[in-house]
Amino acid sequence: MFKHVKDMEYTVHVDKPDPRFAILLLEQFGGGNGELTAAMQYFSQSLGCNDPKIRDMLQDIAAEELSHLEMVGEALAMLVGGVNNIPKDFPANHMALLGGGPLLTNSGGEPWTANYVNSNGDIYTDLTSNTGAELRAKLIYERLLQQTDDAGVKDMIRFLLSREESHNFSFMQAISALQGTGVDKDFRDSDFSKKYMNMSTGQGDSRGPWNQGNGISYETDPNVRYGGPAQYGKDPAPAGNREVAPGYNDNTRNNPSYNQSQPPGQQH
Predict the structure, then answer these.
(1) Greatest extent of the chain over all pairs of C-alpha atoms, in Å
(2) What pTM was estimated for this model as a whole?
(3) Are residues 73 and 12 in contact, defined by beta-carbon separation less than 8 angstroms?
(4) Neighbours of 148 (CB within 10 A)
């Protein structure tokens, strides 16, 4: 059951109308990294989440994102201002024509779409998507701060920006608690899951924790070692029940000199 409480999480103040900025702020109303996208994404993910604690977190944050959508919408209506008499060059004509209400579009006028929502059913994957979503929203709010001098609007944006940071922190902590589960399991299809391929060679080649240590094998010239007919060598010992058994020759599909034998009855 959903219940709307008329007391807003943050009381929106706008010093004076600014239809130009209203168009920019639409990015956080109906844009790909906006509040509606976040609310729909986290709520959709919660429905497929079997971990009751993570499910509760997702629904808590989804509900708050809807409150942020309300805040941004209230600010948009006030930024557009009165629309009874508008000049021909009014910056937000598309909102004025519809009575001054915000539209579910981004700042470029593109309508909101469910294609913005990432919900995969794997908790680790979903939470990782969410951290990126919160950081992208934070980045947009930081840039919106540079586009207005309205003290009330700037204060609202700082509040929202802070809440994006809070949500990102919650998701990051949940990811830490789920390490080694879901898609984060070490599948180890072959020893290639621990290889780093140096595919951008020349001056500036760098090393760091992304390509050394932690059992990583650094391939300085993978084109020479693995290019052409596949010669991957003997598969290592199985790392788990899902390991592809040694001797499996699916890699021969990459060998241009390999001729696929036809099953009985299908030979030409």
Answers:
(1) 80
(2) 0.80
(3) no
(4) 19
